[in-house]
UniProtKB/TrEMBL annotation:
Organism field: Sitophilus oryzae (Rice weevil)
Record has rRNA processing as a keyword: no
Gene Ontology biological process terms from the UniProt entry: proteolysis
Keyword NADP among record annotations: no
Protein name: Trypsin alpha-3-like
Listed PROSITE patterns: TRYPSIN_DOM
Taxonomic path: Eukaryota, Metazoa, Ecdysozoa, Arthropoda, Hexapoda
Highest taxon above the source species: Eukaryota
GO molecular function: serine-type endopeptidase activity
Transmembrane segments: 6-29, 71-97
Family to which the UniProt record says this protein belongs: Belongs to the peptidase S1 family.
This protein's UniProt keywords: Disulfide bond, Hydrolase, Membrane, Protease, Serine protease, Transmembrane, Transmembrane helix
Length: 295
């Protein structure tokens, strides 16, 4: 009888051990599954957080980034084997750019072989070069007052790359409204700052009479439009750069008294004033420029 009791006791102990081992295995399995699930949730949270941060970064970049304007180009001079930035220009058709007459005055002593129009890049040093075939400065341009500060340049090869698209120009019907915002686009090389890439400056248009009062001389005339900077920035080498409003080129940088002074107006060539002049150039020279003007 004692042997029977011992056998039962051994059987019970064995059964208990087996059950305990099974429970232990089940517990280990449950712990592993739980850790795996928690890990997946944690990784998923990390992924979602990273994706959210990435999305947020994209929104920030999109807010601050300005797409390279397809109509901007630079007038450069070949000097001692290097390119020297002279002025900004605006592509207005397949073979023509528009710039400041002062810029054309600066380079008129050089043969065309040493002049290039560089485009298709926001960094003018890395753009595509086009030879210059002709310069047509406005006959009434004055170096003293900068009146009629406009010049046409014809290139030898067509603008046809992805960032060589003619801009839309303001027509003679365009309404310049004071206290409306616009953007200047140009390159900059100053004593304290150097940039080979395009930069943008926000400005507000001001009335003709207010501009005359602030500049305090009679050099401001109907061929000009004025604005003041909404931010401090150096504007050296900005002549010929565009003034854009609602995707229409309404002006080109001409001169300023104190560009870095927010309260000092900048003066731009009024594009709309020269629509008839461009048509006159076409008629007098037997050419078609095909500039696109928008009312």
């Amino acid at each position: 009888m004692g042997d029977g009791i011992s056998a039962v006791a051994c059987f019970s102990m064995t059964t208990l051990l087996v059950v305990s081992l099974a429970n232990l295995i089940l517990l280990v399995f449950m712990i592993m599954e739980s850790r795996k699930k928690c890990g997946e949730d944690f990784n998923d949270r990390i992924f979602k957080s990273s994706a959210l941060q990435s999305k947020f970064s994209s929104l920030v970049d999109a807010k601050n980034h300005r797409e390279t304007p397809k109509f901007m180009a630079a007038l450069v001079l070949l000097k001692s084997g290097t390119m020297v930035l002279i002025c900004g220009t605006v592509i207005i058709s397949r073979f023509w750019v528009l710039t400041s007459a002062r810029c054309c005055e600066t380079v008129k002593i050089y043969p065309f072989e040493r002049l290039k129009i560089v485009s298709n890049a926001d960094n003018w040093k890395k753009g595509k070069s086009h030879s210059v075939e002709n310069l047509m400065r406005h006959a009434n341009f004055s170096l003293k007052s900068f009146s009629h500060d406009v010049c046409l340049i014809k290139v030898g090869s067509p603008f046809k790359e992805i960032y060589e698209t003619p801009g839309t120009l303001a027509s003679f019907r365009y309404a310049y409204l004071q206290d409306t915002s616009a953007t200047t686009i140009g390159w900059m090389t100053g004593k304290t700052q150097t940039s080979n890439r395009l930069y943008f400056t926000n400005v507000n248009l001001i009335s003709f009479h207010r501009c005359q009062t602030l500049i305090k001389d009679e050099r401001v005339d109907e061929s000009m439009i004025c604005a003041y900077n909404l931010e401090n920035i150096n504007c050296n080498f900005d002549s010929g750069g565009s003034l854009v409003q609602n995707n229409v080129i309404i002006g080109m940088a001409s001169f300023e008294s104190h560009c870095t002074n927010r309260n000092s107006p900048r003066v731009f060539t009024r594009i709309s004033y020269f629509q008839k002049w461009i048509q006159l150039v076409e008629n007098q020279n037997g050419v078609k420029i095909y500039a696109n003007f928008k009312p």
